[in-house]
Amino acid sequence: MEKDIAVITIQANNRKIEAKPGEMLLAALQRAGIQVPTLCHMEGLFPSGACRMCVVEVDGQRSLVPSCAFPVAEGMKVQTHSPRAVRARKTIIELLLADHPDDCLYCVRNRNCKLQSLAEELGVRQRRFSGAKSQYELDTSSPSIERDPSKCILCGKCVRVCEEIQGVAAIDFVGRGCQARIGTAFDQGMNVSNCINCGQCITACPTGALREQSHAKQVLDALVDPELYVVAQHAPSVSVSLAEEFGVKAGTDCDGVMVAALRQLGFDRVFDTSFTADLTIMEEASELAHRVANGGALPMMTSCSPGWIKFVEQFYPQYMANLSSCKSPQQMMGAIIKSFFAQREGIDPSKIYSVSIMPCTAKKFEAERPEMAHDGVPDVDAVLTTRELARIIRMRGILLEGLEPQKPDTPFGDRSSAGKLFGATGGVMEAAVRTAHFLLTGKEMDNLKVQAVRGLNGIKEAKVKIGELEVGVAVVNGLANARALLEQIRQGRTDLHFIEVMTCPGGCINGGGQPISADPEAVRARMQALYNIDRDDRVRTSHANEAVQRLYKEFLGEPLGEKSHHLLHTRYAQRPTVN
Amino acid sequence: MAELFVSKCCDKCWHEFGRPCPEIIECLLDGPICHEGDRCQQQRADRIAQLRRERVDHPVIFVGTGTCGLGAGAGKTLQAVRNHLQANEVQADVVEIGCIGLCAAEPLLDVQLPGRTRVSFQAVTAEKVDAILQAMLAGEMPAEGLLGQHRPRGEDQKPFEGVAYLDEHPFFAPQTRWVLANCGIIDPARIEEYIAFGGYRAFTKSIRSRTPAELCDMVEASGLRGRGGGGFPTGKKWQFARTAPADQKYLVCNADEGDPGAFMDRAVIEGDPHRLLEGIAIAAYAIGATKAYVYIRAEYPLAIARLVEAIRQAKAKGLLGQNILDSGFNLEILIKQGAGAFVCGEETALLNSIEGKRGMPRPRPPYPAVRGLFDKPTVINNVETLANLPALVDRGAEWFSALGTATSKGTKVFALSGKVNRTGLVEVAMGTRLREVVFDVGGGIPDGKAFKGVQIGGPSGGCIPTQHLDIEVDYESLKTVGAMMGSGGLVVMDEGTCMVDVAKFFMDFIQRESCGKCIPCREGTRRMLEILQRITHGRQSEKGCEALERFQGVMYLNRLAKVIQDTSLCGLGQTAPNPVLSTLRWFRDEYEAHIYERHCPAGVCTELLEYRIEADKCKGCTLCAKKCPADAIMGAPRSPHYIVPDKCIRCGSCVDVCRFQAVVAQ
Known about the structure:
The complex is a heterodimer.
Chain A: E1 8-12, E2 15-19, H1 25-31, E3 55-58, E4 65-66, E5 77-79, H2 83-98, H3 114-121, E6 145-147, H4 157-165, E7 171-174, E8 181-184, H5 200-204, E9 210-212, H6 216-223, E10 229-234, H7 255-265, E11 269-272, H8 273-294, E12 300-301, H9 306-315, H10 329-345, E13 352-358, H11 362-368, E14 373-374, E15 377-378, E16 382-385, H12 386-395, H13 417-420, H14 427-441, E17 459-466, E18 469-477, H15 479-490, E19 498-502, H16 522-536, H17 546-556, H18 562-568
Parallel strand pairs in A: 1-5, 10-11, 10-13, 12-19, 13-16, 18-19
Antiparallel strand pairs in A: 1-2, 3-4, 3-5, 6-9, 7-8, 14-15, 17-18
Helix pairs in contact in A: 8-10, 8-14
Chain B: H1 24-30, H2 38-51, E1 60-64, H3 67-71, H4 74-87, E2 93-97, E3 109-112, E4 118-121, H5 126-137, E5 146-149, H6 191-196, H7 201-209, H8 212-222, H9 234-243, E6 250-255, H10 264-271, H11 273-287, E7 291-297, H12 301-316, E8 332-338, H13 347-354, E9 378-382, H14 383-395, H15 397-401, E10 411-418, E11 424-429, H16 434-441, E12 451-456, E13 462-465, H17 475-480, E14 489-494, H18 499-513, H19 519-535, H20 546-567, H21 571-574, H22 578-586, H23 588-595, E15 611-613, H24 623-627, E16 633-634, E17 642-643, H25 653-657, E18 663-665
Parallel strand pairs in B: 1-2, 6-7, 6-9, 7-8, 10-14
Antiparallel strand pairs in B: 1-3, 3-4, 4-5, 10-11, 12-13, 12-14, 15-18, 16-17
Helix pairs in contact in B: 1-2, 4-5, 7-11, 7-14, 8-9, 8-11, 10-11, 10-12, 11-14, 18-19, 18-22, 19-20, 22-23
């Protein structure tokens, strides 16, 4: 443990433990390995003190105190599991259960539910409180997120993540007393709210009150439809998180095994979205060079993250011109599968069922955007989150440990590790810098690793030397941070040329479709896994991806060319906000 | 154009707006100060006598038009007064005043004739106005409605013979009116009258000659404690905020009076708004706040209007705003209207509400005195606490602490309501026995019924039974019987009140008003209410295993209450089980009657009533059987009938139709 200058000693459960002055009791207890349960605590945010599960007995305090919101003091004596504290916790869980639908067996979060596991931990074996249960309607209006308020325990984490982390505030508390619930503005459906579909609320939710709009059934139906040619693509960050769903340690890359599993599921072709990530870099780097040379809108902002796109369309339409016109890798893949690939293989595009496996719920919304279709045929037909894929694999009885790793299919299976880096915040920037350097100077960078844009900080900035040119870049993750940066730009900041924005904190590795992990270090482990892949890979720049080069030669022509413009680029439109 | 306080006494007076005399208030009351001169002194004294209505040139008619008065018809009374004066071409002043406290006797009307004392009349509805005014203006004392006369004020007022003085009235005699001193006496819409009675002297003197630290010490020494319910020492709270370093501090006045049956704050603001403003100004100066908020519920439109006008007048006089009386102290007072959530009376929820957020409590620490409104040091004081300050600071800590008990100093205002003869607003010295409040001030229980208990402290408080009626009003003593001071709601209950029903009422209130943030309060109060509802429901409305749930609920009622107390986030939740716990403690037999005997001793819980026909009284007329909607009454004509309990739906129609009083409900 790192030693701080000032350390105080408190006594927890008759054992001396160290604490930092000013920190909350819960943090000190956790560090000392004392588990105090909580339903509403969010690391790094101001404690809300809503759930009262973390109450402990502190000497000299009249009532139990919430350890999440109670600062430590020298000599403090704490009992975390005294009969009084445990009885209180158990009663709270019993009260929650008294207003909870008894349908664990039917619930998407069965066996991965905080309420369920706490009930088990506390030994709830009897229905002590009975009475009226709140009845609310399911909100299935959103293309990405389903809300079931009757399962909600009002911990408020979704509200806080939406407002404080994402700066969106699409949902909030409504009503008083037992009428209190989480709702949207004017109780309208989520589809007309300001929701950007990021799904961070889902991963924050301790119960099954929030979940993705599942496409699993459609995909399973398509897989057994003899008429359809079913193609899968999987996003860079999925391979480093999927294994967690099967009890494997966070940060394990299961790329080859996942490809094998997808083939077993019956997908006719399995492609890697990292390929179109490389393609995105080719287009985007060219677009940036074009904007710099021709006085286009700067700073240019990335467009891979669909939550961010909706955010700009809603809240900052004045910066729509700054967004790169590139489609996201998912939609680029979707477009070339139903054009180039269909043409090459001689398949009717309308008979291709294109499935993407994404760490993201906003991708479901993106795939449904009307401009993401050609002749009425959507480029991507269904989007599965990492969680949904895991469910399907389990459902079909496929054991990952018994599978031999396989390679994805040509022509869109080869990727550079730069494309793989898209899965973490800063990855797009790092890949873009590598390629821009090559395009502008004709030489590879001496050291391909761009340390300044790596890591989990919310806003990362750097001045990057490309030949003689000094480029101001910024990397943002979490839209509250993006909002802060946009406000700086609005107030006249001009030293930035290129900004990467990822909707979710940490990027896709922490997307709203990722496994709901109990491990607070999981995101860091996933990120490290991507960095390790990049460290060990043979091809580390997008422009060196031979499959991409071939695609340009055989089909697209050149970056920003006529075909590219038609297939790989898009435009944006202002959206009304609900206030 | 700013208004001057008075016309200058002579050229030597240099006070003017923008270049104010710091001692202008004292000068008005006892001046002139900067020079001598009998004529000037006389001019000042005359003006004050006039403002205090020691001398009036015309008859003055006062009508109590506080919200309580208006509810009793004072608006029509006022119109009738105006009509009478116009019709009879009488030159008289009509003054609208706040509530003097005797709500049971509203509408109240006072008449002051030149050279005579002011006489009060009670229950003066519009149709009685003519008779009273006609008699009074003719120099006769009307026979009806006389309440009493005020003490002569000044030397010119001649009292009426044979008319009792108001301060000897049993309602007023036991009271000590400090906070309510001006309520129902002065015109709340004129700052001059408040000043004439010594108003703003404490404040202006403080900013001129006391440091904030001295003020905090003084208030701490006085023993003043928060009147909003918690009873935290006010001076101590101020010290925390005063010593907290910050570029901006705030003083917040909590006027979000939400307890059922409580209306102390409203009456003070309606009847004497400047007292509150002066209190706010003193407190703000003491903690170094330049901005103050009054968080007042929007359901108090008259109080808000009075406050808005009072702030306007104080600003116009230079008593609020920038560089007040050249002291260098600035103060802006803003009004924030609450939207009617009970929880917004909780101080941290109130702060959230002012900030424009949803009114939900924040965890403490950090305490508002350190990190409050907009994250700045903030003191939140209740209306009554602040209204105590002008007199306290004017007369000193010793004067204040001379009244009261060892730990509770000064007075406390109560809103007396329920089954008591004289409902109203009363202010008694700390340490007064509850019996005096109920039986002397309140005049006892109406209709000769027996006293059962008082509910004190609103939804967070508790019930006090007969055996503890001699308890002294004091923060600590009330806690020993499971109640609390609270903000001042005092509901008297007689033998016809069911205590389970009372507990149910408060639980229903609390579970509806819980903000929903913390689980024990939101879910727990709801289940407690359901448990109470079940034991007041009759067997016939139970289905399936509901009888089992009823017993189970009773078994866990206490445990649930303890956990809610022990774990809730804010004071609302922590005290939410009190109404149940205190009734359970003092009226356990009533609960047991409901649970074991399935019987409500007070006859309030209708589902538990048993209807029975007394055979010796029944003539067999068959009327009840014909009326019974449930066919529950059997019997042959001309022979006694009987009720089948399982069929009876307890509608009571048999009682209504029986001409021989043969049907009884117990």
